[in-house]
Amino acid sequence: MKKRIAILSSILGLQFSAVAQANNYADVKLTHLDPEKSAATWVRTKQVTPRYPMDLAMKGIAGCGVFKLTVDEDGNSQDIELVSSIPKKVIFKPAKKVIKKWRWENVSGQPNQAEEKVIRLDFCMGGSSEEEAKARCAEQAKLQCE
Question: I want to staple 132 with a disulfide (CB 3.0 to 4.6 A). Which of 13, 26, 34, 127 is the partner?
Fold first, then answer.
């Protein structure tokens, strides 16, 4: 009998844990600060929301980071630097991994040349739905990131 109760408790605990995790939504918002996306020579080839870095998600870390990078003549992200972030420095390493993987496409019609960019990434957690997480992230992106 005690064994059945222990097994039942374990199963219920796992179910509650799964429900709690299912209600944890996250979103990442990318903002092109300089140049603005409409004036840029290079745009990302895949215009999908960047993935939330697993390192940050597992630790429950939300925040923002402003990054300076160069898109080289081949459309690769190079020289990624952290300009500012909240929390300090915790965002840099996982965000750099994400940015480093991006590929860029020249949409200007001009010959390929390097372009310096300043971007902001907001990593947001919380909300009871994907839409709520996106709305929270849009609000967070309006705040200072220093």
Answer: 127
Question: In angstroms, rounded to a whole number, what is the distance separating the alpha carbons of residues 37 and 61?
Answer: 27
User: Quick one: pLDDT at residue 16?
Assistant: 28
CATH number of the domain enclosing 106: 3.30.2420.10
Mean pLDDT comparison of 11-20, 66-75, 118-127, highest-scoring range: 66-75
Percentage helix, strand, coil for the chain under 3-state DSSP, each rounded to 5: 35, 30, 35
b/e map 77-116, b = 16+ CB within 10 Å: beebebeebbeeebbeebbbebbeebebebeeeeeeeebe
With contact defined as beta carbons under 8 Å apart, do 120 and 141 qualify? Answer: yes
On the question of pLDDT at 22 being above 60, the answer is: no
Q: How many CB atoms lie within 10 A of CB 64?
A: 24
Whole-prediction pTM value? Answer: 0.78
Confirm whether 105 is domain-assigned. yes
Answer whether residue 55 is part of any domain.
Answer: yes
Whether 6 maps to a domain, the answer reads no
Nearest partner of 128 among 24, 29, 52, judged by Cα = 24
Range of the domain at 64: 25-140
